[in-house]
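Ticket #382: bound-state structure for magnesium ion.
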Amino acid sequence: MGTPLLPGSTLGVLGGGQLGRMFAQAAQAMGYFTAVLDADAHSPAGLISHHHIRTAYDDAAGLARLAEISDAITTEFENVPAQALRQLAQRRPVAPAASAVAIAQDRAQEKAHFGRCGVPCAPYAVIETAEQLAAVDAALLPGILKTARLGYDGKGQARVKTPAELAAAWDAMGRVPCVLEQMLPLAHECSVIVARGADGQVVHLPAQRNLHRDGILAVTEVYPGNLPDGQVRQAVAAAISIANGLQYVGVLCVEFFVLQDGRLVVNEIAPRPHNSGHYSQNACDVSQFELQVRTLAGLPLTQPRQHSPAVMLNLLGDLWFTQGDAPQAPPWAAVLALPGTHLHLYGKTDPKRGRKMGHLNITAATPEAARTTALRAAELLG
Ligand code: ADP
Ligand code: MG
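RESOLUTION: The complex was predicted; output attached.
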């Protein structure tokens, strides 16, 4: 590994969403300067960064400017064109690499990678042509048809029960490349965040137990006993082998399904910090964003230690509309009167239903206390 980039250097991030904002905040806390590229004048990360380049992700001049002012560059959004990362990599260190991001961007390539790593995923078929559609094994139904690219928070998905529904759903998606996955009987979902340095050193956060509502993460719980020990060991080993197989540098989240018979299968990967890792900001001695800073700057990685049981509640824009159609801020003061509540808002000024506005991390001395406070906070938030 080369010489680390020390505080005082400038770290760049492609994408100005909340993940970029929290990356920039972690970098700034350590004394780095930050640069954000995002076309939106009000992007959460652009608002707080030392530099904000307001161009599209594929704008050659914008990318050149980002490379000029940054000493190393990362991404916060997996749908940035891999080509943009390749262009930046000609001038500066970029992590994760375009090749790893390209795999995470495409569900078919992602699943092929899981196969190479020997990590099981849901039975699936790639559908790119009418012939492949016609040849789909009926055993995959009922299933979920997912666009191979650009899906997130449950978007770009359709649940299908019959070959006719499958054909109609593929038509409705504009016949773009898709994967059909068998619908699995889930007991619950979990995820693991790993950070891998350029020297191959890997550390990880504890396994997170996740609850989704309408395809969007709603609650993450992390404390000893949140998942059976065997599942945690298996999930951590699988996440590390997926990161190693990609020669990955940076923070990677691996999402899993735990089936009703106890089997663990991998769902998908995100080549960046993840919503399910936000609890680490307040419950661990090293957060996922600090891990991202360290991997990008080439600083040493130390195994994070969780010091408090934690529950994370996602704060969607819906919470602004519990009193009617005019948006009204949730009762923050009442929520913050509960012990161990940590509010993170992303600086988005227009709340919308389904939009991620922030999250609430709850820490406590015991899992029971954290859960009780989370229930109370959820009641207050409506
Ligand atoms: P996204 O990229 O939108 O997060 P996911 O593939 O993770 O898409 O799907 C979103 C959610 O839908 C999952 O977290 C899970 O709750 C449910 N889901 C997805 N695939 C399956 C499946 N094969 N079987 C059962 N539930 C699934
Ligand atoms: Mg997902």
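RESOLUTION NOTES: The CA atoms of residues 237 and 279 lie 21 Å apart.
TICKET STATUS: resolved
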